[in-house]
Recover the amino acids of this structure.
């Protein structure tokens, strides 16, 4: 139980999710003055389920409700109920609600409720499942025969799809509050909240950083500010400047620099051609995101990275955009073939992602003229026993052959497009490769100089402000080593 003195978080500490804040602000108002709602016949929601991606601030929002409402706040995690001994979880639920009724009005917060709230009957085999007993007790306590007046249950999860339908019905969780990834304004507000704790140089502008951090959650942005502070501390600076933020952003998006890696000269040259191939194709195609930075310094598990940043927040993708994205991924391998007359394993991750995008276009997004707007094959998510068996979609062998042929056609067309662009711009790729071999990293201004036929300007001195291009979803195209990147490092592809 958290009392008023132990919890200092208020709504001022939560930024970037205004709609979610408004939804839960009503709870605070009710807990302070219940008669306002009751005189018109309304009743407060029994429960509020907060749903959102990891790191968007669901737990923080619940703590802010407790801080604002000035009422007792019981906090427990879903996994705290689950025990080896049968019956312990159910008795813990009873104890928790008994305590809460004594302190009513109050709030119970259950974090990661999917640990106990999973759909019943989904396991194989019968038996008396301890988790199901716990869930049954929770259902009874939330809206059973006795009911629990003045006790509001707030739960958080990032897996609402596996929760039991009985738990989600009105009367138990009357309200589902979605806590989304922040947009550009939300990111700016979140950065302001975290920057309060850090001594900033005058050149740091939160709006520029917000534009350059597309697809980041609140937790990612907190990490960005922390990494920037660590970079500044390493350099013995008194203030954290924009250069530190830029380096922290590169580290998060592209992985940490591995300057200690000694690469043979021919492999370094091959990587430079590979990344130039990606960058030139991305620059020439109209619907791709602007190229923000190209580097041949090994980062994370990649030997080189081409980073693209969109100009605005993106919520869906057009067909032409996806096709051009596939062409950009092929740019690296084609440049190796054309200029080095060889193939390396560096493009393995590019091919994997390009094929995956092409297959999704055909099987899930209905973007194939030949096969039309229909979903082929089953949804390849996590196999959830009990549910996946009933939703199995059978597709005939003939249809799957057509799907494979259509995927092959999309891939071949985009490969041919990328090859044509590279062969007609050999001089640009040579110039960019020379710049990369000389400076190791080039930014958007230098790329623009090369593409317009001028000699690239020298790199900016390390202390200057590097302003990012803008935000949406970030894409980094990498020259991978033989093994593909870990999920954390892999580019954030649009959903």
């Amino acid at each position: 139980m958290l009392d008023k003195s132990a919890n200092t978080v208020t709504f001022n500490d939560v930024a970037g999710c205004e709609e979610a804040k408004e939804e839960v602000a009503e709870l605070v108002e009710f807990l302070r003055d219940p008669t306002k709602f009751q005189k018109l016949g309304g009743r407060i929601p029994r429960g509020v389920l907060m749903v959102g991606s990891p790191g968007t601030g669901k737990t923080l929002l619940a703590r802010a409700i407790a801080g604002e409402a000035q009422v007792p706040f019981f906090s427990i995690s879903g996994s705290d109920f689950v025990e080896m001994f049968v019956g312990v979880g159910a008795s813990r639920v009873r104890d928790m609600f008994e305590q809460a009724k004594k302190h009513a009005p109050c709030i119970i917060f259950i974090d990661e409720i999917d640990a106990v709230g999973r759909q019943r009957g989904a396991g194989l085999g019968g038996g008396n499942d301890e988790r199901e007993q716990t869930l049954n007790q929770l259902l009874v306590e939330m809206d059973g025969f006795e009911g629990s007046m003045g006790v509001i249950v707030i739960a958080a999860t990032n897996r609402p799809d596996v929760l039991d339908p009985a738990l989600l019905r009105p009367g138990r969780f009357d309200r589902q509050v979605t806590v989304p990834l922040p947009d550009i304004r939300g990111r700016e507000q979140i950065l302001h909240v975290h920057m309060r704790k850090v001594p900033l140089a005058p050149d740091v502008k939160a709006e520029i950083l917000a534009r350059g951090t597309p697809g980041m959650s609140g937790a990612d942005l907190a990490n960005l500010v922390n990494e920037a502070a660590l970079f500044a501390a390493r350099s013995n600076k008194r203030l954290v400047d924009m250069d530190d933020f830029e380096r922290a952003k590169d580290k998060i998006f592209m992985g940490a620099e591995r300057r200690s890696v000694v690469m043979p000269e021919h492999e370094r040259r091959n990587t430079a051609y590979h990344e130039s191939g990606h960058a030139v194709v991305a620059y020439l195609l109209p619907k791709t995101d602007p190229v923000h930075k190209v580097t041949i310094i090994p980062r994370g598990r990649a030997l080189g990275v081409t980073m693209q940043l969109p100009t605005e927040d993106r919520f869906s993708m057009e067909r032409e955009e996806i096709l051009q994205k596939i062409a950009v991924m092929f740019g690296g391998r084609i440049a190796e073939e054309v200029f080095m007359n060889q193939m390396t394993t560096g493009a393995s991750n590019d091919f994997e992602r390009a094929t995956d995008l092409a297959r999704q276009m055909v099987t899930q997004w209905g973007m194939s003229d030949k096969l039309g707007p229909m979903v082929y094959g089953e949804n390849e998510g996590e196999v959830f026993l009990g549910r996946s068996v009933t939703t199995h979609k059978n597709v005939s062998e003939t249809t799957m052959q057509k799907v494979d042929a259509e995927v092959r056609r999309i891939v071949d067309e985009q490969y041919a497009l990328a090859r044509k662009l590279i062969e007609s711009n050999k001089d640009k790729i040579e110039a960019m490769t020379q710049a990369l071999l000389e400076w190791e990293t080039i930014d958007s201004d230098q790329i623009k100089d090369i593409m317009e036929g001028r000699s690239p300007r020298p790199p900016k001195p390390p202390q200057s402000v590097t302003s990012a291009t803008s935000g949406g979803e970030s894409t980094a195209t990498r020259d991978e080593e033989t093994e593909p990147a870990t999920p954390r490092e892999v580019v954030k592809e649009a959903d």
Summary: The two ends are 39 Å apart (CA to CA). Residues 397-423 form the longest helix (27 residues). Confidence is low (pLDDT under 50) at residues 381-392, 464-475, 478-495. The chain is about 45% helix and 10% strand.
